[in-house]
Design a protein that fits this description.
By secondary structure, this protein is mainly alpha-helical. A hairpin with a 2-residue loop joins strand 3 and strand 4. Helix 4 packs antiparallel against helix 5 and helix 5 packs antiparallel against helix 6. The protein is about 45% helix and about 5% strand. It is built from 15 helices and 7 strands. The longest helix is centred in the N-terminal third of the chain and has 23 residues. The strands form 3 sheets. Strands 5-7-6 form a 3-stranded antiparallel β-sheet. Strands 1-2 form a two-stranded parallel ribbon.
């Protein structure tokens, strides 16, 4: 049975909880805590041998009518949230109903505090711009807007995470391209507007395209082309120039690693063919590649490193970068990956543990081509709050 609120009580504790929306919310939180303590006292009455009159006094001293009056004063907050609190405060507070009221009041006051904090935030101008093409990104940079892959407006209050769709393929590609363009502008430095115009001009000249055609390019293609044409950053930076001091070292001049010499001294292996690349000797076995768990076919190529991981196997950090995991979700992705490995939800070919681990080297390596790992990565490519949150099944 609900109580009648015919008379409005005089407000108390105004020094601590003034007659303001913030003071009213604080008073309701204090009332919520008193109800919770009275409930705990009632539930532990038998075990702690608490007298009935003590429990009754804890319930009757709660300023229940004043709480209802203060909640009714919050006219600026959403009506749905305010009514949820007043509906609970309209109950008759007794020793028999205090535990049920506590269960209903706590989430209602939590939502009330959340609504009040949102109300305090000043309304701001929409400063986001959804991008799909190079022109969209150029427009965002030149107008001081934040380029995004989807509308980042906050969901409605109490909206469940499951109701928000995961980013699609197009949005995932746009997210990766936006990150790449942000990193490129950061490395090049200078005025961002001027830098993006210079990049667009380079792509236009080297691709023999009109400026409008450059603006219509998908952002991912524009980012890749701009990176290639950036001196000292793109693919040309990794190629030795004419007159460079880098020289090809023949296999006769390059000493084999200790492990390779030891194997050559013990017995020659006709299936192991050395090849020279850069300043390292790479050893490959033919005709088939070794299994990630077959330690006998893995040969270290550096005296200061642990055994080399099989092709396509990366540490958790490198794997996060390769699969375009959002920077803010890398730790969660790596924790989930470890739990899947421990729960044996990954196949033997999906991961590899080296027999020896050097200092600061990854303890486990993961197959970047594994469909299980790629399926998990799809849940972590977007920022938190804009995709379906992964479950710990």
């Amino acid at each position: 049975m609900k109580q009648a609120n015919s008379s409005t009580p005089k407000l108390s504790r105004l020094r601590e909880f003034p007659n303001t929306p913030g003071g009213h919310v604080g008073f309701l939180e204090s009332t919520r805590d008193l109800v919770y303590k009275a409930t705990a006292m009632k539930l532990g009455q038998v075990a702690l041998r608490i007298p009935d009159d003590v429990v009754k006094e804890a319930v009757t001293t709660i300023p229940w009518k004043e709480a209802y009056a203060r909640a009714s004063c919050l006219a600026d907050l959403p009506e749905k949230v305010r009514n949820r609190v007043t509906d609970v405060l309209a109950w008759d507070l007794t020793v028999g109903t205090v535990d049920q009221i506590s269960e209903l009041l706590r989430p209602a006051v939590f939502d009330l505090r959340d609504a009040y904090q949102r109300h305090l935030q000043p309304e701001r101008k929409d400063n986001f711009h959804i991008v799909r093409t190079a022109g969209d990104y150029i427009h965002a940079v030149k107008n001081g807007k934040v380029p995004v892959a989807r509308d980042p407006k906050a969901p409605a209050l109490n909206a469940s995470a499951a109701s928000m769709a995961a980013p699609g393929v197009e949005e995932s590609i746009a997210l990766a391209a936006i990150d790449q363009m942000h990193a490129l502008l950061l490395v090049l430095g200078g005025d961002r507007e001027q830098t993006i115009e210079v990049l667009a001009a380079r792509v236009q000249l080297h691709s023999d395209m009109a400026y409008n055609e450059v603006c219509r390019m998908p952002l991912a293609g524009f980012a890749s082309r701009a990176l290639e044409l950036s001196p000292g950053i793109g693919a040309n930076a990794r190629q030795p120039q004419n007159g460079s001091s880098d020289q090809t070292v023949s296999s006769e001049e390059m000493p084999l690693p200790e492990v390779g010499r030891q194997q050559q001294a013990d017995q020659p292996n006709e299936n192991v063919l050395p090849s020279i690349e850069g300043n390292h000797v790479q050893v490959a076995e033919q005709p088939k590649s070794p299994s990630p768990h077959d330690q006998s076919t893995l040969i270290s190529t550096d005296l200061n490193e642990a055994p080399v991981a099989p092709t396509g196997f990366l540490g958790a950090t490198a794997l996060s970068q390769s699969l375009k995991i959002h920077p803010t979700r890398c730790k969660a992705f790596k924790r989930k990956l470890g739990r899947m490995r421990e729960a044996k939800k990954l196949l033997d070919d999906d991961w590899w543990e080296p027999s020896e681990r050097k200092h600061r080297a990854p303890a486990y390596f993961y197959n970047s081509a594994s469909r299980h790992i790629q399926h998990l990565a799809e849940k972590y490519v977007g920022p938190p709050g804009l995709e379906t949150l992964p479950t710990d099944e």
